């Protein structure tokens, strides 16, 4: 929000984030940044009459580029989509949701090794390391960090955002539509714009900290598993109360995760290994037997000279 005075205090934000009556009271250091982060909520309806403020896009990209980057490789890119017809085509990725078409800006965040390979090739070097699973994980993490920085920056400007993971259900079509070269993969989309004035958004509760916070080591003991079950039960009650307050009939969270992780053979998300290979990610997970093969090799004898 641009008007920071309208953001509640940290105590109220924590109560909403965890469900006021669902468990222990939490404490957090109170400052403008923590309040801003705790105040996050997804926006799925945008004011189509309001354009983005001047320099908004460059501000979001600058914020994204200010995120941490592993070894400063910066192996991500973003495609900004503002053309209404183009947004309409991409909205299919989110089951034709209206908010993708409404938002004045739709960002597609990409794990991108095409740039690194191009630059290495111009130096006469082939970078086989980009072909490994580790490199895709690295690029996906960097892409997510960049996207989240942009989301926080957008919200600080009074804009709303919602992530669109449905892109990964239509990877082939998205890659073709965006003319992605080999070595580039769409990780997630993000709709950005001013929230619709008629929209009332609320902070959705999250799991109790006991479910996600471990000390010194991961606690998979019987006690730890029981604590997980209790935390999930507490969360079921908190989230159920949240949905009922919104007038929404929604299954319990523990049922939701089971349903959500059931495989749909027609969904491209469950075919990503094959699709990633099509997009230029070999996904190797074992180095060559010959250690010499790990060394960067000249891309061609001509370049070596």
TrEMBL record:
Residues 281-305 are annotated as: Disordered. InterPro entries: Flavin_OxRdtase_Frp (IPR016446), Nitroreductase (IPR029479), Nitroreductase-like (IPR000415). GO terms for molecular function: oxidoreductase activity. Residues 37-194 form the Nitroreductase domain. Pfam families: Nitroreductase. Keywords: Flavoprotein, FMN, Oxidoreductase. Belongs to the flavin oxidoreductase frp family. This is Nitroreductase. It comes from Hylemonella gracilis ATCC 19624.
């Amino acid at each position: 929000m641009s008007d920071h005075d309208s953001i509640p205090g940290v105590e109220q934000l924590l109560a909403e984030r965890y469900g006021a009556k669902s468990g222990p009271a939490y404490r957090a250091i109170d400052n403008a940044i923590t309040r801003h982060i705790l105040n996050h909520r997804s926006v799925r309806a945008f004011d189509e009459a309001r354009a983005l403020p001047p320099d908004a896009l460059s501000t979001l990209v600058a914020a994204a580029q200010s995120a941490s980057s592993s070894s400063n490789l910066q192996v991500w890119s973003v495609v900004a989509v503002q053309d209404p017809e183009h947004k309409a085509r991409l909205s299919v990725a989110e089951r034709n949701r209206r908010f993708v078409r409404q938002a004045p800006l739709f960002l597609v965040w990409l794990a991108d090794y095409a740039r690194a390979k191009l630059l290495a090739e111009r130096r006469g070097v082939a970078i086989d390391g980009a072909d490994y699973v580790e490199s895709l994980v690295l690029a996906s993490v960097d892409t997510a960090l960049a996207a989240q920085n942009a989301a926080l920056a957008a919200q600080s400007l009074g804009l709303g955002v919602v992530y669109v993971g449905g892109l990964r259900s239509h990877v082939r079509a998205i890659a073709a539509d965006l003319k992605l070269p080999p070595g580039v993969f769409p990780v997630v989309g993000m709709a950005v714009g001013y929230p619709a004035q008629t929209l009332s958004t609320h902070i959705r509760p999250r799991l109790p900290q006991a479910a996600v916070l471990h000390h010194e080591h991961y606690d998979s003991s019987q006690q730890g598993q029981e604590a997980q079950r209790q935390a999930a039960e507490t969360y079921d009650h908190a989230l159920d109360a949240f949905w009922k307050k919104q007038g929404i009939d929604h299954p319990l969270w523990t049922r939701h995760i089971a349903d959500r992780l059931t495989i749909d053979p027609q969904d491209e998300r469950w075919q990503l290994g094959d699709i990633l290979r099509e997009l230029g990610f070999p996904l190797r997970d074992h180095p060559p037997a010959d250690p010499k093969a790990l060394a960067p090799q000249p891309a061609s004898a001509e370049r070596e000279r």
